[in-house]
């Protein structure tokens, strides 16, 4: 692995200038490295962070990657990581024109990393430097433990088993609160307080907006501080219980950990036992795993949008670059391989790129307006064009504020149906052909609502786990976790290993019971066969609320509630 040569670096600098002229915003300092495909195999398990901590699973993944590469050799074009300065990796045999195309794509990624609000907590962090410091800290712990160093990997494994439960949005909320100019009371009023009022009294959104407008008016007229005080006096007149509820909210927020990691670090009897000589290093390792997970959370939640944004810019900028001359045919072949829309499955590059272009075109024509939404006629909708020229502004607004979920659900149902119709998208289904005795794919639906549901179901959505209150914890004897069912069940085969790790981290040699309450479904074997043979068959199934309990490495399962449902 080595830095790119000066000739290639000059091309990159020219691409930066043209990208910034087009509106992209990013730090001018970047590092570009030339790597071989073998290097990429070794970096892959570490998510392209060369300085990430060592872990035995990484070694296994490298060996597996090498075997796969021998059978299926491939040539990845680039990888970029979000750190300061931004670092990107390139294949060692790319020609200049291909490097220019890839540079525009990478600069699109960097612009997204450094301006999207979901990456706010990473903007000023040199994660590669932090990862190197963490790696050295873990290696130091291994050396100090001597023959017992294998326990470091055990704790890493236990912590990584729950790293998708990290309180990412809680961290983001706290960061937003610290940056906000509003007081804690104002934040609480327009957040949790009004949310509860909406649920209890059915206040509509227009009333909410009226209250926001009133607060803004007072702040503008009297000044921020005086305006807030006046507004809060009006709130207390309307809701006499506001102050008492705010005080209770502050106490609960201060006492409640943001995720399972924090709860274990703060409340584990084992890790906080004074006689436990291993507590100091275990806490450090767990904190490192938590910080690493928080760093990667926004990348997981913006993968589709991020790839589409980078693809949008490499297409729009490289097509105007002089380096494309003489290579248009080759570029078209390379680009089509990246941007193809598969008939079955999902290509995030192509889908997001086409969706962004469609949104830009709609905004330019004024089709995102209320006027257009009221139009019912197909031909009238097709011919509608107000020539607003607002497309680019809308795209940059989306880049600043949206993740994958928000982007996919941005368009109205009618507009999204138009998008699906334009590109002839459909939801594919699978069924058994009894005559041929094969599995075949078929067009299950061309409805925009169904296609959007398929996209939403494919998004990263970690389970919502609530740490129950002290009363429930006491009843369980240890830790009681409540999985809030949101349409997806937990993967059963992972439950024993996760609860075993939690049992150790909470109790050590004196294990505490770890309880997990979750939702499961049961379908008879006969119904399963009927579903496989007939895609339209609707089975009877049982919805179960069950509690898994891990104690002394023994797992038990108890059904606490049963409900018959029809699919």
Write the SSE topology.
Blueprint: E1 2-3, H1 6-21, E2 30-35, H2 37-43, H3 56-71, E3 78-81, E4 86-91, H4 96-115, H5 127-145, H6 150-160, H7 168-179, H8 184-201, H9 205-222, H10 224-238, H11 242-255, H12 260-267, H13 279-301, H14 303-318, H15 328-339, H16 348-364, H17 370-373, H18 378-383, H19 391-401, H20 404-408, H21 413-422, E5 427-433, E6 438-445, H22 448-458, E7 464-467, H23 470-476, E8 479-484, H24 495-507, E9 514-523, H25 525-533, E10 540-551, E11 554-566
Parallel strand pairs: 2-4, 8-9
Antiparallel strand pairs: 1-2, 3-4, 5-6, 7-8, 9-10, 10-11
Helix pairs in contact: 1-4, 2-3, 4-14, 5-13, 6-13, 6-24, 8-11, 9-10, 14-16, 16-19, 21-22
Task: Provide an overview of this structure.
With 567 residues, this protein is of the alpha+beta class. The chain folds into five domains: 2-116, no CATH class; 129-167 and 259-299, no CATH class; 170-255, no CATH class; 340-458, no CATH class; 464-566, no CATH class. Helix content is 56%, strand content 14%. The strands form three sheets. It has a five-stranded mixed β-sheet. The protein has a four-stranded mixed β-sheet with strand order 1-2-4-3. A two-stranded antiparallel ribbon has the order 5-6. β3 (78-81) and β4 (86-91) form a beta hairpin. α9 crosses α10. The model has no long low-confidence stretch (mean pLDDT 87). It holds the Pfam family SpoVR. This is SpoVR family protein.
């Amino acid at each position: 692995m080595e830095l790119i040569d000066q000739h290639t670096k000059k091309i990159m600098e020219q691409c930066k200038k043209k990208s910034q002229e087009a509106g992209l915003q990013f730090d001018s300092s970047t590092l570009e490295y030339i790597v071989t495909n073998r290097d990429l195999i070794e970096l892959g398990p570490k998510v392209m962070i060369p300085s990430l901590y060592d872990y035995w699973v990484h070694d296994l993944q490298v060996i597996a990657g090498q075997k796969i590469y021998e059978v299926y050799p491939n040539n990845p074009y680039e990888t970029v990581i979000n750190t300061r300065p931004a670092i990107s990796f390139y294949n060692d045999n790319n020609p200049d024109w291909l490097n220019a195309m890839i540079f525009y794509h990478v600069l699109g990624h960097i612009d997204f990393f450094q301006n999207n609000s979901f990456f706010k907590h990473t903007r000023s962090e040199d994660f590669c430097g932090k990862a190197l410091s963490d790696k050295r800290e873990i290696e130091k712990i291994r050396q100090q433990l001597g023959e017992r160093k294998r326990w470091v990997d055990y704790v890493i494994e236990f912590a990584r088993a729950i790293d998708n439960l990290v309180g990412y949005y809680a961290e983001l909320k706290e960061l937003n609160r610290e940056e906000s100019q509003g007081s804690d009371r104002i934040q609480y009023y327009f957040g949790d307080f009004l949310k509860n009022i909406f649920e209890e009294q059915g206040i509509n959104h227009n009333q909410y907006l009226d209250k926001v407008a009133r607060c803004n008016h007072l702040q503008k007229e009297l000044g921020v501080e005086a305006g807030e005080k006046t507004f809060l006096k009006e709130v207390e007149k309307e809701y006499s219980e506001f102050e008492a509820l705010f005080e209770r909210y502050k106490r609960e927020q201060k006492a409640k950990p943001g995720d399972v990691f924090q709860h274990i670090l703060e409340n584990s009897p084992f890790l906080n036992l004074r006689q436990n000589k291993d507590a100091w290093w275990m806490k450090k390792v767990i904190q490192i795993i938590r910080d690493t997970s928080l760093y990667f959370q926004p990348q997981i939640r913006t993968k589709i949008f991020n790839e589409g944004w980078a693809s949008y810019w490499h297409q729009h900028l490289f097509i105007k670059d002089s380096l494309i001359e003489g290579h248009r045919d080759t570029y078209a072949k390379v680009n089509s391989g990246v941007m193809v829309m598969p008939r079955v499955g999902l290509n995030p590059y192509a889908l997001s790129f086409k969706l962004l272009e469609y949104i830009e075109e709609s905004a330019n024509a004024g089709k995102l307006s209320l006027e257009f939404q009221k139009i019912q006629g197909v031909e009238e909708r097709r011919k509608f064009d107000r020539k607003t020229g607002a497309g680019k502004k809308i795209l940059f607004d989306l880049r600043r504020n949206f993740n994958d979920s928000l982007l996919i659900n941005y368009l109205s149902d009618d507009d999204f149906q138009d998008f699906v119709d334009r590109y002839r998208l459909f939801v594919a289904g699978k069924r058994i052909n009894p005559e041929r005795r094969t599995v075949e794919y078929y067009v299950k639906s061309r409805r925009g609502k169904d296609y959007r549901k398929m996209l939403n179901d494919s998004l990263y959505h970690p389970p919502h786990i609530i740490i129950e209150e002290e009363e429930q914890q006491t009843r369980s004897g240890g830790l009681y976790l409540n999985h809030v069912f949101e349409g997806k069940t937990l993967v059963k085969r992972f439950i024993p290993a996760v609860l075993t790790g939690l049992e150790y981290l909470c109790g050590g040699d004196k294990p505490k019971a770890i309880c997990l309450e979750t939702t499961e479904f049961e379908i008879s074997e006969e119904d399963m066969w009927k579903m496989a043979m007939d895609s339209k068959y609707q089975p009877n199934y049982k919805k179960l609320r069950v509690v898994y309990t891990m104690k002394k490495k023994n797992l038990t399962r108890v059904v606490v509630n049963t409900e018959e449902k029809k699919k």
